[in-house]
Design brief:
The protein has seven helices and 14 strands. By secondary structure, the protein is α+β, with helices and mostly antiparallel strands. The chain is 32% helix and 25% strand. About 9% of the residues have low confidence. Helix 1 packs across helix 3 and helix 4 packs across helix 7.
């Protein structure tokens, strides 16, 4: 049977010869088991592929292995490559007690892929990119990463069901990335990007955040926070909460917000 190459589904292309999965300018070479699982799901697109079918595909008779644990690990690696969250899948749906189903239909090789959105999915998707460390001190990376993680957590708490926030492990691949906002948006199927930077000098810290629309690459909102403190965990949490509430007001104004308890931050003095 003729199999087209590459295989297209959603925004992805799978090169069956090189085992390379591509979305825009992002590419990853799939390991053996995730590749075989994806091929089997594509062969049975829209229908359930049972765990028993996957077992027979991945492990020939006579192989001694913990099938359940190994299959779960292989599915997790495939989802990581696809950049999706098991709780909000865009491609591989878990069918409890049965198996898995590909919910992004394969496309004709001559047709350009279109972003896939599931019925009932959040109407907007936001990617929080890793905040850049501008301190000139690599030991401060933890502070930038902490701000990023806090912002994602706060956004997820405020806008669950109204706006999809892409998982942190998907966006961390873009740390230090110089790609254009439109390209990152296409790869992550994100309507908006939140990017930012941090600087620390002694007891002072400056955190800047910026909201970008991926289709137009236009800045929609930005803010800078200056703080002097010794409790940096509180600074991260407070700034992240203020940023999250500001983003929700911009993108999902109908979402009810709790009264802000964020302290007033001084505006930068232009130093």
């Amino acid at each position: 049977m003729y199999t087209p190459n590459p295989l297209r589904f959603g925004t992805f292309e799978l090169d069956v010869h090189s085992r390379e999965l591509r979305s825009g300018s992002t590419s990853v070479r799939l390991q053996g088991q995730p590749f075989e699982i994806l091929c089997l799901l594509l062969e049975h697109s829209g229908t359930v592929v049972t765990r028993e079918q996957l077992r027979r595909r991945l492990w020939p008779e006579g192989t001694f292995v913990d099938y359940e644990h190994s299959l779960n690990a292989a599915i997790k690696r495939l989802r990581t490559a696809l950049g999706e969250d098991a709780d909000q899948p865009a491609f591989v749906e878990t069918v409890p007690r049965r198996g898995y189903r590909l919910i992004a239909a394969p496309q004709d090789p001559g047709v350009a892929p279109e972003p896939t959105r599931l019925a009932g999915s959040p109407r907007l998707r936001l990617a929080v990119l890793p905040f850049s460390n501008l301190s000139g001190d690599t030991s401060q990376e933890y502070f930038s990463d902490g701000v990023t993680e806090e912002v994602i957590a706060q956004l997820g708490r405020l806008c669950r069901g109204d706006m999809g926030v892409i998982a942190r492990w998907s966006t961390m691949a873009y740390k230090g990335c110089v790609q254009r906002a439109r390209e990152i948006g296409e790869a992550l199927q994100a309507d908006y990007l939140l990017e930012g930077s941090t600087r620390r000098e002694g007891a002072r810290a400056r955190i800047t955040a910026r909201l970008i629309e991926t289709a137009t690459e236009a800045d929609l909102w930005s803010e800078t926070y200056d703080s002097t403190a010794s409790d940096w965990l509180s600074v991260q949490a407070d700034v992240a909460s203020d940023v999250a509430q500001s983003i929700v007001k911009e993108l999902a104004p109908d979402v009810g917000l709790l009264p802000s308890l964020i302290p007033e931050y001084s505006k930068p003095s232009g130093d």
